[in-house]
Amino acid sequence: MTQTIAVIRGDGIGPEIMDATLQVLDALKLGLQYEFVEAGLGAYEKQGELLPAATLDAIHRHRIALKSPLTTPVGGGFSSINVELRKRFDLYANVRPAISFPNTRSRYTDIDLITVRENTEGAYIGEGQQLSADGETATLTQKITRRGSERIVRYAFDLARRLGRKKVTVVHKANILKTTSGLFLKVAREVAQQYPDIECNEAIVDACCMKLVMDPQQFDVIVTTNLFGDIISDLCAGLVGGLGLAPGANIGTEAAIFEAVHGSAPDIAGKGIANPCALLLAAGQMLDHMGRCDEARRLRQAIVDTLQARDGLTPDLGGSGTTQDFARAIAARAAG
Protein backbone atom coordinates (compact mmCIF):
# COMPACT_ATOMS: atom_id res chain seq x y z
CA MET A 1 0.00 0.00 0.00
CA THR A 2 1.41 3.39 -0.97
CA GLN A 3 1.04 6.53 1.10
CA THR A 4 2.18 10.06 0.35
CA ILE A 5 3.75 12.29 2.97
CA ALA A 6 4.75 15.94 2.76
CA VAL A 7 8.51 16.41 2.98
CA ILE A 8 10.16 19.69 3.97
CA ARG A 9 13.89 19.47 3.19
CA GLY A 10 14.66 22.50 5.32
CA ASP A 11 17.58 24.91 5.58
CA GLY A 12 21.26 24.56 6.41
CA ILE A 13 22.03 20.89 6.97
CA GLY A 14 18.36 20.08 6.45
CA PRO A 15 18.59 18.85 2.84
CA GLU A 16 21.59 16.65 3.68
CA ILE A 17 19.97 14.86 6.61
CA MET A 18 16.66 14.60 4.75
CA ASP A 19 18.33 12.91 1.77
CA ALA A 20 19.99 10.50 4.18
CA THR A 21 16.71 9.77 5.95
CA LEU A 22 14.78 9.13 2.76
CA GLN A 23 17.54 6.79 1.60
CA VAL A 24 16.98 4.68 4.71
CA LEU A 25 13.18 4.84 4.40
CA ASP A 26 13.44 3.69 0.79
CA ALA A 27 15.61 0.76 1.90
CA LEU A 28 12.73 -0.36 4.12
CA LYS A 29 10.51 -0.65 1.00
CA LEU A 30 7.56 1.02 2.69
CA GLY A 31 5.79 2.15 -0.47
CA LEU A 32 6.02 5.79 0.65
CA GLN A 33 5.65 8.59 -1.86
CA TYR A 34 7.00 12.07 -1.18
CA GLU A 35 5.59 15.47 -2.04
CA PHE A 36 8.43 17.94 -1.56
CA VAL A 37 7.37 21.34 -0.29
CA GLU A 38 9.24 24.33 1.09
CA ALA A 39 9.31 26.41 4.24
CA GLY A 40 11.77 28.61 6.08
CA LEU A 41 14.59 30.69 4.69
CA GLY A 42 14.78 28.76 1.44
CA ALA A 43 11.09 29.29 0.78
CA TYR A 44 11.38 32.97 1.66
CA GLU A 45 14.26 33.50 -0.77
CA LYS A 46 12.43 31.73 -3.60
CA GLN A 47 8.82 32.69 -2.99
CA GLY A 48 8.88 35.59 -0.54
CA GLU A 49 6.97 33.53 2.05
CA LEU A 50 8.14 31.56 5.04
CA LEU A 51 5.17 29.20 4.86
CA PRO A 52 3.81 29.07 1.30
CA ALA A 53 0.17 28.11 0.83
CA ALA A 54 1.22 25.04 -1.16
CA THR A 55 3.12 23.73 1.85
CA LEU A 56 0.19 24.19 4.19
CA ASP A 57 -2.12 22.57 1.63
CA ALA A 58 0.16 19.52 1.28
CA ILE A 59 0.29 18.99 5.05
CA HIS A 60 -3.49 19.36 5.21
CA ARG A 61 -4.04 16.83 2.41
CA HIS A 62 -1.53 14.18 3.48
CA ARG A 63 -1.92 14.76 7.23
CA ILE A 64 1.69 13.68 7.79
CA ALA A 65 4.86 15.65 7.22
CA LEU A 66 8.54 14.92 7.77
CA LYS A 67 10.49 18.11 8.38
CA SER A 68 14.15 19.06 8.54
CA PRO A 69 15.27 22.10 10.58
CA LEU A 70 14.19 25.52 9.35
CA THR A 71 15.76 28.96 9.60
CA THR A 72 13.48 31.87 10.45
CA PRO A 73 14.82 35.13 8.96
CA VAL A 74 15.46 37.93 11.43
CA GLY A 75 13.41 41.11 11.24
CA GLY A 76 9.93 40.07 10.12
CA GLY A 77 7.34 37.38 9.67
CA PHE A 78 6.66 34.74 12.29
CA SER A 79 8.67 34.67 15.50
CA SER A 80 8.98 30.91 14.92
CA ILE A 81 7.90 28.85 11.93
CA ASN A 82 7.61 25.78 14.15
CA VAL A 83 5.25 27.60 16.51
CA GLU A 84 3.22 28.80 13.55
CA LEU A 85 2.89 25.26 12.16
CA ARG A 86 1.77 23.98 15.55
CA LYS A 87 -0.85 26.70 15.79
CA ARG A 88 -2.10 26.27 12.20
CA PHE A 89 -2.66 22.52 12.57
CA ASP A 90 -3.39 22.43 16.33
CA LEU A 91 -0.48 20.05 16.93
CA TYR A 92 -1.05 20.03 20.64
CA ALA A 93 1.20 17.12 21.68
CA ASN A 94 4.97 17.34 21.36
CA VAL A 95 6.47 13.91 22.02
CA ARG A 96 10.22 13.63 22.54
CA PRO A 97 11.80 10.33 23.56
CA ALA A 98 15.27 10.22 25.07
CA ILE A 99 16.86 6.79 24.68
CA SER A 100 20.43 5.70 25.26
CA PHE A 101 22.32 4.45 22.21
CA PRO A 102 25.66 2.62 22.08
CA ASN A 103 28.94 4.40 21.33
CA THR A 104 27.64 7.90 21.97
CA ARG A 105 29.16 10.63 24.08
CA SER A 106 26.74 10.49 26.98
CA ARG A 107 27.01 10.24 30.75
CA TYR A 108 24.38 7.49 31.04
CA THR A 109 23.84 4.19 29.23
CA ASP A 110 20.34 3.15 30.30
CA ILE A 111 18.01 6.09 29.69
CA ASP A 112 14.56 5.41 28.27
CA LEU A 113 12.09 8.19 28.95
CA ILE A 114 9.58 10.32 27.06
CA THR A 115 8.69 13.98 27.49
CA VAL A 116 5.15 14.90 26.47
CA ARG A 117 4.91 18.66 26.12
CA GLU A 118 1.81 20.77 25.58
CA ASN A 119 2.47 22.52 22.30
CA THR A 120 -0.12 25.25 21.68
CA GLU A 121 -0.48 27.49 24.74
CA GLY A 122 1.44 28.90 27.68
CA ALA A 123 4.34 31.36 27.79
CA TYR A 124 6.28 29.73 24.95
CA ILE A 125 3.93 30.79 22.17
CA GLY A 126 4.49 34.47 23.01
CA GLU A 127 0.93 35.77 23.17
CA GLY A 128 0.47 39.36 24.25
CA GLN A 129 4.10 40.41 23.95
CA GLN A 130 4.42 44.14 24.52
CA LEU A 131 7.22 46.61 25.13
CA SER A 132 6.42 49.89 26.81
CA ALA A 133 6.91 53.13 24.88
CA ASP A 134 10.00 53.98 26.92
CA GLY A 135 11.50 50.55 26.29
CA GLU A 136 11.81 49.87 30.00
CA THR A 137 9.11 47.25 30.57
CA ALA A 138 8.27 44.10 28.65
CA THR A 139 5.14 42.04 29.28
CA LEU A 140 3.83 38.69 28.10
CA THR A 141 0.51 36.90 28.54
CA GLN A 142 0.63 33.32 29.76
CA LYS A 143 -2.63 31.46 29.17
CA ILE A 144 -3.36 27.91 30.28
CA THR A 145 -6.76 26.35 29.57
CA ARG A 146 -8.59 23.40 31.04
CA ARG A 147 -9.06 21.99 27.54
CA GLY A 148 -5.37 22.25 26.68
CA SER A 149 -4.30 20.76 29.99
CA GLU A 150 -6.81 17.92 29.88
CA ARG A 151 -5.98 16.75 26.39
CA ILE A 152 -2.18 16.78 26.84
CA VAL A 153 -2.31 14.93 30.15
CA ARG A 154 -4.73 12.40 28.70
CA TYR A 155 -2.42 11.98 25.71
CA ALA A 156 0.47 11.23 28.07
CA PHE A 157 -1.47 8.63 30.05
CA ASP A 158 -2.84 7.01 26.88
CA LEU A 159 0.70 6.89 25.47
CA ALA A 160 2.01 5.33 28.67
CA ARG A 161 -0.73 2.69 28.61
CA ARG A 162 -0.19 1.93 24.91
CA LEU A 163 3.56 1.52 25.35
CA GLY A 164 3.34 -0.45 28.57
CA ARG A 165 4.90 2.35 30.62
CA LYS A 166 4.22 2.30 34.34
CA LYS A 167 4.58 5.89 35.53
CA VAL A 168 3.68 9.42 34.49
CA THR A 169 5.28 12.42 36.22
CA VAL A 170 3.33 15.69 36.07
CA VAL A 171 5.77 18.61 36.10
CA HIS A 172 4.55 22.04 37.21
CA LYS A 173 5.33 25.21 39.19
CA ALA A 174 1.99 25.43 40.98
CA ASN A 175 3.64 26.42 44.25
CA ILE A 176 4.38 29.85 42.71
CA LEU A 177 2.28 30.12 39.52
CA LYS A 178 -0.87 29.28 41.40
CA THR A 179 -3.38 30.09 38.68
CA THR A 180 -1.75 28.94 35.42
CA SER A 181 0.41 26.07 36.62
CA GLY A 182 -2.15 25.48 39.35
CA LEU A 183 -4.89 24.84 36.81
CA PHE A 184 -2.64 22.46 34.89
CA LEU A 185 -1.88 20.48 38.03
CA LYS A 186 -5.53 20.40 39.13
CA VAL A 187 -6.65 19.03 35.77
CA ALA A 188 -3.77 16.56 35.68
CA ARG A 189 -4.84 15.13 39.04
CA GLU A 190 -8.40 14.71 37.75
CA VAL A 191 -7.21 12.90 34.63
CA ALA A 192 -4.78 10.67 36.56
CA GLN A 193 -7.66 9.26 38.63
CA GLN A 194 -9.03 7.73 35.43
CA TYR A 195 -5.85 5.66 34.94
CA PRO A 196 -5.52 3.56 38.11
CA ASP A 197 -3.15 1.15 36.34
CA ILE A 198 -0.51 3.88 35.91
CA GLU A 199 1.40 5.46 38.77
CA CYS A 200 1.17 9.26 38.81
CA ASN A 201 3.86 11.39 40.43
CA GLU A 202 4.15 15.17 40.68
CA ALA A 203 7.33 17.24 40.52
CA ILE A 204 8.06 20.95 40.69
CA VAL A 205 9.98 21.86 37.55
CA ASP A 206 13.24 22.98 39.16
CA ALA A 207 13.38 19.91 41.40
CA CYS A 208 12.55 17.75 38.36
CA CYS A 209 15.54 19.15 36.46
CA MET A 210 17.85 18.41 39.38
CA LYS A 211 16.54 14.85 39.70
CA LEU A 212 16.91 14.28 35.94
CA VAL A 213 20.58 15.17 36.15
CA MET A 214 21.24 13.11 39.28
CA ASP A 215 19.00 10.07 38.79
CA PRO A 216 17.13 10.06 35.46
CA GLN A 217 16.20 6.39 35.73
CA GLN A 218 13.42 7.29 38.17
CA PHE A 219 11.44 8.87 35.29
CA ASP A 220 9.35 7.13 32.65
CA VAL A 221 6.87 9.52 30.98
CA ILE A 222 6.96 13.22 31.83
CA VAL A 223 4.05 15.52 30.97
CA THR A 224 4.22 19.28 31.33
CA THR A 225 3.38 22.66 29.89
CA ASN A 226 4.96 24.26 26.84
CA LEU A 227 7.92 26.25 28.15
CA PHE A 228 8.85 23.73 30.83
CA GLY A 229 8.63 20.96 28.25
CA ASP A 230 10.95 22.81 25.88
CA ILE A 231 13.61 23.04 28.58
CA ILE A 232 13.16 19.55 30.03
CA SER A 233 13.21 17.79 26.67
CA ASP A 234 16.52 19.43 25.74
CA LEU A 235 17.92 18.48 29.14
CA CYS A 236 16.87 14.89 28.46
CA ALA A 237 18.59 15.01 25.07
CA GLY A 238 21.76 15.95 26.93
CA LEU A 239 21.45 12.79 29.01
CA VAL A 240 21.74 10.59 25.90
CA GLY A 241 24.35 12.42 23.87
CA GLY A 242 22.79 15.64 22.63
CA LEU A 243 20.31 16.99 20.13
CA GLY A 244 21.80 14.91 17.32
CA LEU A 245 19.96 11.96 18.86
CA ALA A 246 16.74 13.80 19.72
CA PRO A 247 13.64 13.32 17.55
CA GLY A 248 10.34 15.09 17.97
CA ALA A 249 6.74 14.43 16.99
CA ASN A 250 4.06 17.13 16.86
CA ILE A 251 0.68 15.42 17.00
CA GLY A 252 -2.82 16.76 16.45
CA THR A 253 -6.15 15.25 15.57
CA GLU A 254 -5.95 16.27 11.91
CA ALA A 255 -2.20 16.27 11.17
CA ALA A 256 1.21 15.30 12.52
CA ILE A 257 4.67 16.69 11.80
CA PHE A 258 7.84 14.76 12.62
CA GLU A 259 11.17 16.53 12.92
CA ALA A 260 14.73 16.71 14.07
CA VAL A 261 14.58 19.14 16.97
CA HIS A 262 18.06 20.57 16.52
CA GLY A 263 18.81 23.67 14.47
CA SER A 264 19.82 24.09 10.85
CA ALA A 265 23.54 24.34 11.76
CA PRO A 266 24.59 26.66 8.91
CA ASP A 267 28.21 26.48 10.09
CA ILE A 268 28.51 22.89 8.86
CA ALA A 269 25.99 23.01 6.00
CA GLY A 270 27.39 21.57 2.78
CA LYS A 271 30.27 19.80 4.50
CA GLY A 272 28.53 16.42 4.47
CA ILE A 273 29.26 15.68 8.12
CA ALA A 274 25.85 16.24 9.75
CA ASN A 275 24.48 13.42 11.90
CA PRO A 276 21.09 12.30 10.46
CA CYS A 277 20.04 10.26 13.52
CA ALA A 278 17.59 12.78 14.96
CA LEU A 279 15.59 12.94 11.73
CA LEU A 280 15.85 9.17 11.25
CA LEU A 281 14.47 8.63 14.74
CA ALA A 282 11.69 11.11 13.97
CA ALA A 283 10.92 9.03 10.91
CA GLY A 284 10.61 6.06 13.26
CA GLN A 285 8.05 8.01 15.30
CA MET A 286 6.24 8.75 12.04
CA LEU A 287 6.09 5.05 11.16
CA ASP A 288 4.69 4.24 14.61
CA HIS A 289 2.04 6.93 14.08
CA MET A 290 1.16 5.38 10.71
CA GLY A 291 0.73 1.96 12.31
CA ARG A 292 3.95 0.66 10.71
CA CYS A 293 5.40 -0.39 14.07
CA ASP A 294 7.40 -3.38 12.78
CA GLU A 295 9.16 -1.19 10.24
CA ALA A 296 9.78 1.45 12.93
CA ARG A 297 11.48 -1.21 15.07
CA ARG A 298 13.59 -2.31 12.10
CA LEU A 299 14.67 1.27 11.53
CA ARG A 300 15.64 1.85 15.16
CA GLN A 301 17.45 -1.49 15.34
CA ALA A 302 19.42 -0.63 12.20
CA ILE A 303 20.53 2.61 13.87
CA VAL A 304 21.53 0.75 17.05
CA ASP A 305 23.44 -1.92 15.10
CA THR A 306 25.27 0.70 13.05
CA LEU A 307 26.26 2.66 16.14
CA GLN A 308 27.36 -0.56 17.83
CA ALA A 309 29.54 -1.45 14.83
CA ARG A 310 30.87 2.13 14.62
CA ASP A 311 30.17 1.94 10.90
CA GLY A 312 30.40 5.28 9.08
CA LEU A 313 29.81 7.37 12.20
CA THR A 314 29.87 11.13 11.74
CA PRO A 315 32.42 13.28 13.63
CA ASP A 316 30.01 14.28 16.41
CA LEU A 317 29.75 10.57 17.26
CA GLY A 318 33.50 10.12 17.27
CA GLY A 319 33.82 8.78 13.73
CA SER A 320 35.22 10.13 10.49
CA GLY A 321 32.34 9.22 8.17
CA THR A 322 30.08 11.48 6.14
CA THR A 323 26.34 11.89 6.38
CA GLN A 324 25.96 9.61 3.39
CA ASP A 325 28.43 7.01 4.74
CA PHE A 326 26.36 6.78 7.90
CA ALA A 327 23.08 6.64 5.96
CA ARG A 328 24.34 3.90 3.64
CA ALA A 329 25.42 1.79 6.60
CA ILE A 330 22.03 2.18 8.30
CA ALA A 331 20.14 1.58 5.05
CA ALA A 332 22.03 -1.66 4.40
CA ARG A 333 21.02 -2.99 7.81
CA ALA A 334 17.44 -1.75 7.49
CA ALA A 335 17.09 -3.53 4.14
CA GLY A 336 17.91 -6.77 5.94
TrEMBL record:
Q: Which GO terms describe its biological process?
A: isocitrate metabolic process; tricarboxylic acid cycle
For the keyword Oxidoreductase, the answer is yes
Q: Enumerate the PROSITE patterns for this protein.
A: IDH_IMDH
Which leading EC class covers this enzyme? oxidoreductase
Q: Tell me the SMART domains matching this sequence.
A: Iso_dh
What the entry lists under InterPro entries is as follows:
IsoCit/isopropylmalate_DH_CS, IsoPropMal-DH-like_dom
This protein is called Isocitrate dehydrogenase
